[in-house]
Design goal:
This is Transcriptional regulatory protein FixJ. Helix content is 57%, strand content 10%. By secondary structure, the protein is α/β, with parallel strands linked by helices. The longest helix has 33 residues.
């Protein structure tokens, strides 16, 4: 779970936008949420409509989105779907004053992090908010590592990729040589090249990096 200092530090390393995005049609609610969030050391930015937020956000929008279920113009659920279609994976916490079970089910099926009814207890709310932020940080780090692994993999030659695939399958150098119809010594040379290009210090590192290419 991120601390206040960790979040401040992250803002110093490429983060230029507020961490918590409050999308609510009621000015009083927006202001109250902003005061609460900022009192806990988390930067926040408010939006009155879903369109306002869509005009602002990009796939790099990160942190957490506090989203009112019943927004003007487009609903919170419609906004959630639009964000998903745009590739924006920032965790969403829906906030509503009504117990709407069908909407709750739809929100969770579409990937909502949580669904909180007003009035809520501040400590529990902030706990869930910090958990959402922690999830976002973890997910973004995973995607960063995936992108890095993909870039490294793209630098491999066709034969090096074949050797890598055999390695991940658990083939020994002898088995790999037989499978690819090349010498044991050649396999060792290719594997050394793969280790260097994939920036893996050990075989375990290489397998771990390769597996990143197989996950979402």
């Amino acid at each position: 779970m991120p601390t206040r200092q960790n979040i401040r530090n992250s803002s110093l390393h490429g983060r230029t936008e507020p961490l918590v995005h409050i999308v609510d049609g009621q000015p009083a609610v927006r202001d109250a949420l902003k005061v609460l969030v900022e009192s806990e050391g988390l930067p926040a930015r408010c939006f009155a409509t879903g369109k306002d937020f869509l005009d602002y956000c990009t796939p790099d929008t990160h942190g957490c989105i506090l989203l009112d279920l019943r927004l003007p113009e487009i609903s919170g659920l419609e906004l959630q779907k639009t964000l998903s279609n745009k590739g924006i994976r920032t965790p969403i916490i829906f906030i509503t004053g009504e117990g709407d079970v069908p909407a709750l089910v739809e929100a969770f099926r579409s990937g909502a992090f949580d669904f909180i009814e007003k009035p809520f207890e501040n400590a529990n709310f902030m706990s869930r908010l910090r958990e959402a932020i922690a999830l976002d940080l973890k997910s973004r780090e995973h995607r960063r590592r995936q992108a890095e692994a993909a870039a490294q993999y793209a630098r491999l030659s066709k034969r090096e990729k074949q050797v890598l695939h055999c390695t991940v399958k658990g083939y020994s150098s002898k088995d790999t040589a037989k499978s690819l119809a090349i010498s044991h010594r050649t396999v060792e040379i290719y594997r050394a090249n793969v280790m260097r290009k994939m920036q893996a210090e050990t075989l375990a590192d290489l397998v771990r990096i390769a597996l990143l290419l197989e996950t979402d």
